[in-house]
Design brief:
InterPro entries: DUF222. This is DUF222 domain-containing protein. The protein contains six helices and no strands. It is mainly α and about 110 residues long. It has one domain (about 1-105). It is globular and about 45 Å long. The two termini are about 20 Å apart.
Length: about 110
């Protein structure tokens, strides 16, 4: 059924976004952005992925706070949460709220 296929594809896209977040975190940690000629990690992500700078900002925000939100980012890697969901958490949530938001986001979809 088309609805099932849509759900499956969205889960795969979420998992891919999770891997992109991991790559961006590593690029930033290892300070590899400068060797590309990009002015910032956001510019690099937008350039290499073909997404808008706003969406690249979301990826960078999640990458920068991945260690603070391990449950949420793991759910993204596993395809259970979307980049949009985890992005809002990374951009706005207080430290120490990972478990709360991982549980809330899982039932809010």
């Amino acid at each position: 059924m088309l609805i099932d296929e849509l759900s499956e594809l969205c889960g795969q896209r979420n998992a891919i976004d999770g891997r992109i977040v991991d790559i961006v975190a590593e690029l930033e940690h290892d300070e590899l952005c400068g060797i590309t000629g990009a002015r910032s990690i956001t510019s690099l992500v937008a350039w290499k992925t073909g997404i808008t700078p706003n969406n690249a900002d979301t990826i960078v925000a999640v990458a920068r706070r991945a260690e603070e939100f391990p449950l949420c980012t793991q759910a993204l890697r596993e395809g259970r949460l979307s980049l949009d969901q985890v992005g809002v958490i990374a951009e706005r949530a207080a430290d120490g709220s990972d478990a709360h938001f991982a549980e809330l986001a899982a039932v809010a979809t």
